[in-house]
Amino acid sequence: MSEADTPKKSLIDRWSGVSLARRVMIAAAIWGMVVLIGGALALSALYRAQTLSLIEDDLRQTLITLSRELTREDAFLSDGRVTDTDRDFFSNDARFQVQYSGHYWAVVGLTPELQIAGDFRSRSLWDEAVPVTPDLIRRAVDLPGVTQYSNYPGPADQVSRVAAMAIIVENRETPLVLVAAADRTPNDEAATRFRNMLLGTMIALFGGVFAAMLIAVRYSLNPLRNLAEDVVKVREGETQKLSGGYPAEVRPLTEELNKLIEHNREVVERARTHVGNLAHALKTPLAVLRNEAKGATQLDDVVRRQAEAMQTNVEHYLKRARMAARAEALGARTEVRPVLDGLARMLNRLFDARGIEVIVTGGEGGTFRGEQQDFEEMAGNLMENACKWARSEVLVTISDGAEGLVISVEDDGPGLTPEQRAGALKRGVRLDETTPGTGLGLSIVTELAELHKGSFELGDAALGGLKATLRFPRP
User: How many C-beta neighbours within 10 Å does residue 49 have?
Assistant: First the structure.
């Protein structure tokens, strides 16, 4: 994979971990902003274009009025000059009477080079230049009788919309250009106000819609959160199956999960049955081998030792198979303190002659996420081993906090060196051959702890002997 692909993959991985609710809200936010702000800008542009169209309609009407006045019979002399240039064509319209009112008209004469040769104009234009550009004059002359439009920065620094139309006059070398102009600043300001108001309204609308969508998405995803909580309850053993009321879209998933849970239980039960059958099937042949090898020959000795080794290995692996099957079972849950109290009472009676006292502290309400038989196997091995080596006291401490379940077993015996601790965890290793046992106890504890996602370690005890600690993280 190239270096360029790495950021892309990282981005995809990050996006794949985003919750469904966040994905929906991000998509809705992006699309909503695009639609609402885009719509606001489009409506604003439409409003601006409409107001500009109204200005152009008014300018066109002004040009039509001018052309109508100039086409009357006495409007021109025989050489094509306008007869009465001092006459105000719009004397009754106050817009053209007030200086720089924002509404203007002019009639422009041209030279053969299309330069302005002279003009007569509205009083509102006063002494300002005619608001027309050479380009607008050229376009008007090229298409006589057709109104052409352009913008012009004036008069009086007003941003004006200008309309120009050329008319052909008999006996005149060049056409006349009729010009009408209007200050478009008020219309532009109105369009800007409308755009700002529309954007504010759209943003407020988006906020309301987004809040409503957020509530709707959270409400719609509640069944999934409830499903996750119910699955945790099944895994922790608080219930045997998913039984909550779910909507139609989620119900098929819950039904399949219930089938999977039931199938898991059936698989575990079948594994236990097969392990038991295998144990019974091997027990008799091994017993026969040991009974037939009671002689004093070298062959009898070899057969006895190998049969015992086979018996030890069979017991170990059958026990491990049972442990693995139980560890995979869903919903197993064991109260810690009652089990340890029961083991302590049994060991106190068993080692009473030696004056050994087993004390259990803490752990009220603590739970082990697994079957009771597995927990008894681990705790029983550690507590019995501590009693064998203790002088007078064995202390069992339970802690079930934020870091998980921690069980420590301490004794006041001789303890072990670091090298001896490492050796004690190996399967079949016995540090003292004078004590009964197979050397499988601590290795079984280690394997059981790992099967339940936990850990097992040995250390120095505050009582002076060995401290064995089991740790199980929270699920």
Answer: 11
CA 276 to chain CA centroid, Å, is: 48
Cα separation, 387 vs 351, whole angstroms: 7
Would 200 be classed as within a structural domain? no
> What distance in Å separates the CA atoms of residue 352 and residue 186, rounded to the nearest whole number?
105
Q: In which domain, by residue range, is 71 found?
A: 48-189
Dihedrals phi, psi of 184, to nearest 5 degrees: -95, 5
pLDDT tens readout for residues 193-250: 988 888 888 888 888 888 888 888 888 878 878 887 887 777 766 777 777 677 887 7
Q: How far apart are CA 474 and CA 366, in angstroms?
A: 11
Does residue 218 form part of some domain?
no
Contacts of 379 (CB under 8 A, 6+ apart): 339, 340, 343, 396, 407, 409, 470
CB atoms under 10 Å from CB of 267, counted, come to: 13
Bridge partner residues of 400 (DSSP): 405
- pLDDT (average), residues 15-33: 77
- Identify which of 165, 113, 111 has the alpha carbon closest to the alpha carbon of residue 143: 165
CA nearest 179: which of 65, 48, 52? 65
Full-model pTM: 0.47
